[in-house]
Write a structure and sequence with these properties.
By secondary structure, this protein is α/β, with parallel strands linked by helices. It has a single domain, classed as Rossmann fold (3-Layer(aba) Sandwich), CATH 3.40.50.2300. Helix content is 45%, strand content 12%. It contains 5 helices and 3 strands. A 3-stranded parallel beta sheet has the order 1-2-3, with helices on both faces. Strand 2, helix 4 and strand 3 form a beta-alpha-beta unit. Helix 2 runs parallel beside helix 3.
Length: 124
């Protein structure tokens, strides 16, 4: 889980950690930390905020995709639009989820669904 907002990052990590089928293996404050943690831990699912300091989520997704081609990458952002979704998919993201667009349980279910039934990734 990578997000520069401590509250969002910690809350999502806590919620996922409470689920029996999720193990949170790391939390990052920026895209550079996310890439480093992903390389160290080889997670099945990476949740990335789009707008982060040092390295943004799109660049982090692209970097992570290079060394973890089978990982499920989900961009988690405050605002979505067609252009951002296209950029995210080009960077290697499997899905784009909007923060606050749904309740907490819906977020967990969508992330679970992404791993169980991943969307088709558009080659980048």
């Amino acid at each position: 889980m990578a997000d520069d907002d401590d509250g969002v990052r910690d809350l999502v990590a806590l919620l996922l950690g409470l689920e029996p089928d999720f193990d949170v293996v790391g939390c990052a404050r920026n895209g550079a930390e996310a890439m480093s943690l992903a390389e160290e831990t080889s997670p099945d699912l990476v949740v990335l905020d789009v707008s982060m300091p040092v390295v943004d989520g799109l660049a982090a997704a692209s970097g992570i995709r290079r060394f973890l081609p089978a990982a499920h990458l989900v961009m988690f952002t405050a605002l979505t639009d067609a252009a951002l979704e296209s950029e995210a998919r080009a960077a290697g993201a499997n899905a784009v989820l909007e923060k606050g667009a749904a309740g907490v349980q819906t977020l967990v279910e969508r992330l679970r669904g992404e791993v169980i039934r991943p969307s088709k990734r558009v080659p980048g």
